[in-house]
Specification:
The chain folds into three domains: 63 residues, no CATH class; 144 residues, no CATH class; 111 residues, Nucleotidyltransferase, domain 5 (2-Layer Sandwich), CATH 3.30.420.10. The longest helix has 22 residues. α5 packs across α11, α11 crosses α12 and α14 packs parallel to α16. It contains 16 helices and four strands. A hairpin with a 4-residue loop joins β1 and β2. The structure holds zinc ion. GO terms for molecular function: nucleic acid binding; RNA-DNA hybrid ribonuclease activity. InterPro entries: RNase_H-like, RNase_H-like_dom_plant, RNaseH-like_sf, RNaseH_domain, RNaseH_sf, RVT-Znf.
Length: 348
């Protein structure tokens, strides 16, 4: 087009639309009509950002502009991931799904980082979230085993978002052995996605039975923990002595055998379950049982220093407790157990 902008303005200072019509279609003309043509009284041209009231650019407003009409953060829909009762990592996963942010092969192609849009597990030509979580052979194998036959067709119908919303808001427990369905559904969906990633990146594949078993286990564990209200957790610990002269010593340890890394820690709480003092210590390279013993010993030293009258020791290692109790009547071969016995006698 060999003309300047001034050539496109008619003598009456309006756009020369007949000239425009030579090059652009009518729908574009409709948009140009509403734009005021350049005029000497308009002053110099300036670049402004119309998405903010101050006409200055911000990333926030640009993102809002891009999502305009497609995303309303105030919709009830977006509260689902944070309202349904499930482990936090699963909630976060569901949020990513609803935001359509999982890096499936289709999404990787869209972002210019993938070479194939096909599913790496079943070979389906398009691997999107709907395929991975619902329609892939790997996913179907799991859902088919869990969903009752008479409801299978309705389970598989609907868009991805409808499917997620329906199941995440369904708190039926009748067909899941007392486990909240929304929780189990979220965990299974997350597990299917993890399984897909393990297969793609590490060549590892879990069987359908393993996925179902571990998902049920997670859901059961979560349900049993969430059943204990905060009040109960604080005041009705098992075997908790109610007298206010008691304190409770909780100890535990962690060992990374391959890396030779071990640490122990614990805390002392009063008769109401309130925190009094805590401790943690790096132990280098030692066995699981030694870590438990050292945790108890550290805790006893801490308790002795503060002259508590009566205390209860709680640990998750039955082996450690049995070893301490067994050797109680004789001199133990283990230095740590001898020191624990010494401390126990001192505290009596
Ligand atoms: Zn597939």
């Amino acid at each position: 087009m060999d003309c300047s902008l001034s050539n496109l303005i008619a003598s009456n200072s309006s756009w020369n639309l007949d000239l425009f019509r030579l090059w652009v279609p009518e729908e574009i003309i409709d948009q140009i009509v509403s734009v005021p043509p350049p005029h000497p009284s308009s002053g110099l041209n300036r670049i402004i950002w119309r998405a903010t009231s101050t006409n200055t650019f911000s990333l926030n407003s640009a993102y809002g502009k891009v999502c305009e009409g497609t995303l309303n953060p105030n919709e009830v829909f977006w509260r689902i991931p944070w309202k349904f009762k499930c482990p936090h990592r699963t909630c976060f996963f569901i949020w990513l799904v609803l935001k359509q942010m999982l890096l499936t092969n289709i999404e990787r192609i869209r972002r210019g980082s993938g070479s194939s849009s096909a599913c790496g597990i079943c070979g389906h030509v398009l691997e999107d979230m709907m395929h991975t979580l619902k329609d892939c052979l790997a996913a179907k194998g799991v859902w088919d085993k869990i969903i009752p036959k008479q409801t299978l067709s309705s389970f598989y119908s609907g868009s991805l978002l409808d499917w997620m919303a329906t199941n995440l808001q369904n708190q039926m427990t009748s067909s899941t052995g007392g486990i909240d369905w929304s929780c189990l559904f979220g965990i299974i969906a997350w597990r299917i996605w993890k399984n897909r990633n393990m297969f793609v990146f590490q060549g590892i594949s879990w069987s359908v039975e393993e996925i179902i078993k571990i998902s049920f286990s997670w859901a059961k564990q979560y349900s049993s923990i969430s059943l204990i209200s905060k009040f109960e957790a604080r005041s009705t610990l098992p075997n908790w002595p109610m007298s206010n002269s008691w304190v409770c010593l909780n100890t535990g340890g962690s060992v990374k055998i391959d890396e030779g890394f071990a640490a122990t820690g614990g805390c002392v709480r009063d008769h109401k379950g309130e925190w009094i003092i805590g401790f943690a210590r790096y132990l280098g390279n030692c066995s699981v049982l030694e870590v438990e013993f050292l945790g108890i010993l550290d805790g006893l030293n801490l308790t002795a220093d503060r002259c508590f009258q009566k205390f209860l020791i709680q640990t998750d290692s039955i082996e450690a407790i049995e070893a301490i109790m067994e050797d109680d009547t004789r001199i133990s071969n283990s230095t740590i157990i001898r020191r624990i016995h010494h401390m126990l006698k001192k505290l009596e």
